């Protein structure tokens, strides 16, 4: 009955509606898409345009990496004030070395967070993989490189198993990976048995490569600058190549000035970092591998159809499904990637200590990895983020850890501060999401 | 109807669909020609959505024949329908809020350039498509979340056109829109017709139906209850067909009003 009355109400409507229908068609401005709505915020020309756009973005909650950069500067200033060894080349070099291991875990977590899910098992999986590696190498005499590959494959399979329970059975990812957190840690303890610790020979294979005394190009001064130069060159080629193709296709492109400023800032950061690391001992191979993993995963997420699928599932499951994307496949594969990176991170931990211990991957490893990804700017709500947040977030987290160690702070204090920082990052994420909603951007 | 002589793009002949104890569709016939907008109307539960879903491949039919360009075809899954050239825009648009307009338009069928997503060509083609449809949106690089309801609707419709379909099914495209946005969507429907596409439009809104449709097909309790050329049919006739009676509250009210008007 209510339905019929609705139809009757619209009874007087046809002429009115027909009138409005024809107006836009006769409107001469409707001819092309290039006619923009006057209410639109279009960036003004020149420097002023960038300033106003920046203000608008901050107001709209699109903070990007701004909070983390500001936070990093504050943290560094505080620690430097408390202990003037903090910003020394050696300490900064230590930060870059030790952040690589947890950073690997954070890369995998970024994939999971992009789906709007969480993987609580990465710490345990990293511990398990380092133990498997140690058992295979030390107790079974397997070739270390083969053992490394097998350990990483184990991590991928473990992750895929989590993903399968989540995607196919429908168990919440939170619970599956919580079970994994306990279960895989238990398996690791069982494997280590009564011995408790397995020392891995650190004079060969991956453990040597990932150790603290292994540097890119054997500490050659040119090595660090070579890396920095390579990064800048790739960025230049990428940016100008894109500009050329966009010009050719007649779509808006980034002005040359903006590209130069962006690449210039990157070059500044890269060469300063290279100089600082050279002042210490050089670029650790662990850091090089971490950076390479970031470049590769960033490419996968932004430039391949697979990455697009991950973002689509994170932004709208129904939309992704209707677009023909296999949601279970994306989910399982993302958890497999997370497991794989957790296993690689486990190798890094093994490289740091040249052993597999009962405490590997335990403690606050998981917390730090999650905190890094979120602090770096990847949203907990899915669909927004980038793997570079693993780098930025790890810089913050490792700076705090290293700084507190320098100040001889207790583990208890460290946990409290890290917990506070994680909470702060999540609050920023939630608040910025709310203001994005208010500004119609989420 | 202008296109009577041509073979219909899609023809349903005696289609039936049963869900358990419910006979959702009984012997339904429907024809859509190229360049024709068919409005599918009916009360809630009349079987409109079920009918559309059988065409879109969500629910395979139990009985009857679906003819595509004169040849009988079987549609058992959405993929079959897409392969034939059926594009469906559902009421809940199902766009990814975090992706920009280009990303949404090409979601699931991204253009590749040496194995890498070709953003430039996609953006160029998206702009061309939107401009031929006279769709006005701020920028093709803006996330869907920042578009208005009407803009999202036209993006969803434009998305359906990326695959070059022959038949577009629109499920209540104007249900949640304001006056201006409704006009934009109706404009777009007319443009689809001008492009020679067949359009099935589900709507509860008689004003919309009268404004753009060529033919109104009425469903009632899962059966055909008449098919009218819009030009020569009054509101009351359509509503009578929808409600299935000539003597009911609606017609009595209409009769009273016309009597008053005569005075």
UniProtKB/TrEMBL annotation, chain A:
Keywords: Cell inner membrane, Cell membrane, Membrane, Sugar transport, Transmembrane, Transmembrane helix, Transport
Keyword Transmembrane helix: yes
Compositionally skewed regions (Basic and acidic residues) per UniProt: 1-14
InterPro entries (UniProt xref): ABC_transp_permease
Compartment(s) where it occurs, according to its Swiss-Prot or TrEMBL record: Cell membrane
Bias type Low complexity, positions: 17-29
Pfam families, per database record: BPD_transp_2
Topological type in the membrane: Multi-pass membrane protein
Transmembrane segments: 63-83, 95-115, 120-138, 144-166, 173-193, 213-238, 259-277, 283-301, 329-350, 356-375, 387-407, 413-431
Region of interest called Disordered, as start-end residue ranges on this chain: 1-29
This protein's record includes keyword Transmembrane helix: yes
Biological role stated in the UniProt entry: Part of the binding-protein-dependent transport system for D-xylose. Probably responsible for the translocation of the substrate across the membrane.
UniProt xrefs under PANTHER family: ABC TRANSPORTER PERMEASE PROTEIN YPHD-RELATED-RELATED, XYLOSE TRANSPORT SYSTEM PERMEASE PROTEIN XYLH
Protein name as annotated: Xylose transport system permease protein XylH
Protein species of origin: Streptomyces thermocoprophilus
């Amino acid at each position: 009955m209510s339905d019929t009355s609705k139809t009757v109400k619209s009874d007087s409507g046809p002429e009115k509606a027909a009138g409005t229908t024809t107006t836009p068609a006769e409107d001469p401005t409707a001819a092309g898409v290039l006619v923009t709505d006057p209410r639109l915020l279009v960036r003004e020309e020149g420097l002023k345009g960038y300033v106003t756009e920046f203000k608008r973005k901050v107001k709209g909650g699109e903070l990007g990496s701004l909070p983390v950069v500001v936070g990093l500067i504050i943290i560094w200033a505080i620690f430097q004030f408390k202990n003037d060894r903090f910003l020394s080349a050696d300490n900064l070099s230590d930060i870059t070395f030790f952040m690589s291991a947890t950073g690997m875990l954070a890369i995998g977590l970024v994939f999971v967070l992009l789906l709007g899910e969480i993987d609580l098992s990465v710490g345990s999986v990293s511990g398990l993989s380092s133990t498997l590696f140690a058992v295979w190498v030390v107790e079974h005499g397997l070739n270390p490189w083969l053992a490394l590959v097998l350990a990483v494959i184990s991590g991928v399979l473990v992750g895929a198993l989590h993903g399968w329970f989540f995607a196919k059975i429908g168990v919440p990812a939170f619970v599956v990976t919580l079970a994994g957190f306990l279960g895989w840690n238990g398996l690791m303890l069982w494997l280590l048995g009564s011995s408790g610790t397995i020392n891995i020979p650190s004079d060969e294979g991956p453990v040597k490569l990932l150790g603290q005394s292994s540097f890119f190009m054997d500490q050659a001064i040119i090595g660090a600058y070579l890396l920095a130069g390579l990064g800048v060159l790739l960025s230049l080629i990428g940016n100008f190549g894109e500009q050329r193709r966009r010009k050719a296709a007649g779509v808006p492109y980034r002005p040359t000035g903006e590209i130069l400023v962006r690449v210039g800032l990157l070059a500044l950061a890269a060469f300063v970092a290279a100089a600082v690391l050279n002042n210490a001992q050089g670029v650790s191979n662990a850091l090089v591998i971490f950076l390479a993993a970031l470049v590769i995963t960033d490419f996968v997420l932004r430039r391949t159809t697979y990455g697009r699928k991950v973002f689509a599932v994170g932004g709208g499951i129904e939309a992704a499904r209707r677009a023909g994307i296999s949601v279970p496949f994306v989910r399982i594969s993302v958890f497999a990637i997370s497991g794989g990176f957790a296993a690689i991170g486990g190798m890094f931990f093994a490289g740091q200590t040249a052993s597999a211990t009962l405490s590997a991957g335990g403690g606050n490893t998981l917390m730090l990895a999650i905190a890094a990804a979120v602090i770096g700017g990847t949203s907990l709500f899915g669909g927004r983020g980038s793997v570079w947040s693993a780098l930025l977030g790890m810089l913050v987290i490792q700076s705090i850890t290293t700084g507190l160690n320098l100040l001889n702070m207790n583990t208890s204090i460290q946990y409290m501060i890290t917990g506070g920082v994680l909470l702060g990052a999540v609050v920023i994420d939630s608040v910025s999401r709310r203001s994005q909603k208010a500004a119609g951007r989420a | 109807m202008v296109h009577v002589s041509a073979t219909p793009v899609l023809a349903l002949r005696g289609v039936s669909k049963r869900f358990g104890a419910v006979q959702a569709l009984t012997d339904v016939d429907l024809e859509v020609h190229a360049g024709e907008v068919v409005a599918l109307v009916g009360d809630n539960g009349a079987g409109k959505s079920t009918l559309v879903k059988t065409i879109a491949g969500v629910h395979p039919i139990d009985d009857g024949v679906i003819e595509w360009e004169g040849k009988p075809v079987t549609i058992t899954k959405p993929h079959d329908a897409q392969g034939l050239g059926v594009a469906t825009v559902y009421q809940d648009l199902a766009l990814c809020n975090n992706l920009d307009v280009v990303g949404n338009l090409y979601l699931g069928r991204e253009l590749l350039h040496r194995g890498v997503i070709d953003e430039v060509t996609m953006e160029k083609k998206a702009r061309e498509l939107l401009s031929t449809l006279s769709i006005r949106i701020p920028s093709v690089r803006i996330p869907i979340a920042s578009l208005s309801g009407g803009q999202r609707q036209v993006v969803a419709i434009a998305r359906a056109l990326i695959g070059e379909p022959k038949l577009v099914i629109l499920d209540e495209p104007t249900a949640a829109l304001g006056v201006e946005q409704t006009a934009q969507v109706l404009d777009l429907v007319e443009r689809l017709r001008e492009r020679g596409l067949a359009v099935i439009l589900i709507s509860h809104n008689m004003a919309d139906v009268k404004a753009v449709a060529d033919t109104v097909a009425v469903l009632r309790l899962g059966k055909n209850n008449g098919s009218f050329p819009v030009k020569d049919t009054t509101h009351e006739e359509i509503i009578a067909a929808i409600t299935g009676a000539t003597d009911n509250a609606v017609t009595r009210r209409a009769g009273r009003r016309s009597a008053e008007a005569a005075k």
